[in-house]
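fwd from M.: "can u put these together and see what the complex looks like"

so here's what she sent:
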Amino acid sequence: MVASQTIADKSKAEEPVDFDAIVIGAGVSGLYQLYRLRELGLTVRVFEDGSNVGGTWYWNRYPGARFDSESWTYGFSFSQELLDEWDWEEHFAGQPETERYLNHVADKFDLRRDIQFNSRVAAAHYREDTRSWDITLEDGRRYTSRFLVTAVGVLSAPTLPNIPGVESFKGPSFHTHYWPKEPVSFVGKRVAVIGTGATGIQTITEVAKTAGHLTVFQRTPQWAAPLHNAKITKEEMNSIRANYSEIFARCQETFGCFIHTADPRSALEVTEEERETFWEKLYGEPGFGIWMGNFRDIMVDRQANRLISDFVARKTRERVKDPIVAEKLIPKTYGFGTRRVPLESGYFEVYNQPNVKLVDLSETPIEHVTPEGIRTSDADYQFDVIIYATGFDAITGAFDRIDIRGVSGASLKDKWADGPVTLLGILVDGFPNFLMVMGPHAGLGNFPRAVEYTSDWVTALIRRARDNGLTCVDATPEAAKAWTDHVIETNEGLLFTEVDSWMTGINRNVEGKQVRRVMRYGGGHPAFRERCDAVSSGGYRELSMA
Ligand SMILES: Cc1cc2nc3c(=O)[nH]c(=O)nc-3n(C[C@H](O)[C@H](O)[C@H](O)COP(=O)(O)OP(=O)(O)OC[C@H]3O[C@@H](n4cnc5c(N)ncnc54)[C@H](O)[C@@H]3O)c2cc1C
């Protein structure tokens, strides 16, 4: 007993604790950042809360979890070998396929040896004397590094609804993010789904296929549109592979890094017939074309937005047999595309099934989760299973859950209490050597395209510091303020800023997240990259480096 304890203590003592860089998170961002930093010859350690790689695609195993990005635009573009050897099976891959892909990437580039799983970072404190970061894991283990790179995800801090009694339910209940690895059967069961965002819509569509009875609790209806997924044939995959460079080049040119480009016409300058024909075409095509490839003004002009909203409402009415249910499913308080558009595969038809009931929480709110089920203002429902598709404390949530402190012990959470302040969505003044991949103020969209660019920018900055013996890299407060003002400006006039959603920093289940804030860059990815390039090619004048 004593001998084995000594060996354990010794191996613990010999475990390296100081690194050139520490990365938090082993999703798309963390994996790629690790690959690039290792290329620089740095010692790197990635801390990941989960037991394997994949981030979003490791955690979200709920039924129906799937891309809205075309799979072949989502994969990494940095390795020709990887592009040559990986065949995507579906145009919009399901979670298992994407998880397999990210595991393949981790294996191929031997990334796991620098990743420490089941390791949740609880605190990160900057030390001015050593110009390095002290990292503390939830289990108390401590590490240090010159650079700290966060790859913590924008949708990785799940939230349960603020309803009394959630803990009291006697049956199994699941948050979609924390879905178990073992299959869950709904056959013959009375199932409740709370939440009808993008995740809820995917879950409901799948669970309705086997549940004995499904009750959907809807707080906010969504402007969902068809995904039109399909398998990829061998010939299609060959053609995709032959065209990868054009595909990625096109993604770089578009606002959201998807393959869909906005139509240069205004919705108001064409005839009603032209409009209808165009919208019928988009509604019948795969992916985000209806959102990202629509007339240029649907997201900025109220009349254009009302017309597309009317069109999508009509399509929904055609698909739902009961007109009362159809009206409940059509948003009335915000326009199409001003929240993240969920893409669906038969969602609206689910409500034509006899085993599915919609409960509109704007009419009859939930009062309590009970040991047997859910009590609304007008009924008591009994369930065998409850599924919470209640989303995330988005964008800043994963940061808020770590005690991050910069110069003089200043807390990042406090600094961002009235909204994030950043430089390029990558640096935060007063937090030296702290770099964010896909932090607040980054552009959202087709993630890996933005991740590759941002991680390369971060890597170039670290290389410059290393090559010039610089040990403290920080944004100047003036530059951070100027960038933050610019981000706010890029959001002006966009209709989505007038709507409560996770993209405007609202989460009614999280204290302090009831006021709209500018959370993301609104100028599109090409403009974002131009700004970042200007800072690096201009010699990083917006940073103080010593
Ligand atoms: C259901 C769903 C569907 C989506 N569909 C699309 C899509 O179609 N197209 C698209 O482009 N994007 C989509 N997204 C967005 C998706 O999050 C990104 O595409 C991408 O996976 C983000 O990668 P990431 O590495 O930045 O973050 P994540 O994949 O979220 O990974 C972050 C990792 O950091 C870890 N972590 C966080 N905090 C800590 C801590 N304190 N200590 C240790 N580890 C920590 C988490 O465990 C997680 O594994 C979707 C998201 C969800 C939730």
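replying to her w this: Residues 447-467 form the longest helix (21 residues).
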